[in-house]
Amino acid sequence: MVLFKMGALLAVGYLGLCLLMFFSQERLLYFPDPRLIATPEALGLDFESVSIGTEDDLRLHAWWIPANPARGVLLFCHGNAGNISHRLDSIRQFHELGLSVLIFDYRGYGESEGKPSEAGTYRDVTAVWRYLTGKRGIPPEKVVVFGRSLGAAVAAHLAARVEPGAVVLESAFTSVADMAARLYPWLPVRWLVRIDYPVARDIQAIRAPVLILHSPNDEIIPYDMGRTLYELAHEPKEFIELRGGHNDGWLLSEPDYSTAVDAFLDEHLSAPTESW
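-> C-alpha cells emitted (276 positions)
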C-alpha cells in the first residue's frame, strides 16, 4: 500500500510537471521588457522612431538608423529578452559596417502592442519586411535578414518565404522541441511543445547566402545545433566560430566578428550606392 501511494504521488507529480510544461511555454520562452533604457542617440547615431502595422492590426515599435552611403539594410531580429534598447552596441557594429539598420520589437516587447507568441512573431517580421520593401522601397536583394538566438528562428522563418540579399543567423537552435529535449530529457516534450520555431526545417528552404555564427562555449544553445544548421543550409554558406558565451560572443569575438561579417557582405552584396 505504501509503495502504491508513493507511486501515485510520483505519477501525479509527473503529470503536474507535464501540465506545467504545456501551459507555461510562453512564460518560459518570452521575457519582454516594456521600458526603453536608451536610444541610438546615446551613440551619436541619427535615427527615426517608426510605427509598423501588422496584419492583425497591432502597432510595432521600431528604429530606423540610416547609413550614408549604405551597402544594404539590416533587418534585425533580436533575442527573447529585453527590447530594442538593449541592442545598441550591436546596432553600432552593423552601422559601422555600412548597413542601415531597422530593428523592431516583437509584439509585447518595448513599446510594441500585443502579447508575444510564435505566430505573432512571424506576423511581426513579415510586417517589417513589407514595410522595408514596400513603404521604404528597399530592393529585397539589398536586405540582410539577421537574427540572434530566438531572433534567428524568426529570421529563418522570414528568409524561407522571401528573397533577401543575405541571411545571418547567430547562436541559433534547431527547434524549440530539440532544445526542450536537451533541457528536460525526463519529460515527453515532443508531445507537449506548442511552440515550435522549426529552424532546421526553415533553413532548408532558404536560397539566399547564409552566414551562421556560433560559439562552442555557448552555455544556452548547444554549439552542435549551429553546426547542424550549417550542414542543412544550401550553398553559398559560411560558418564562423565565435568566442565567449551565448550573450556576449558577438562582442568578445571582435574584431574577428566584424571582419567576418564584412567579408561575407563584400561577397554577397554589391558596393554601397546610396542612403536609404
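The chain has a mean pLDDT of 90.
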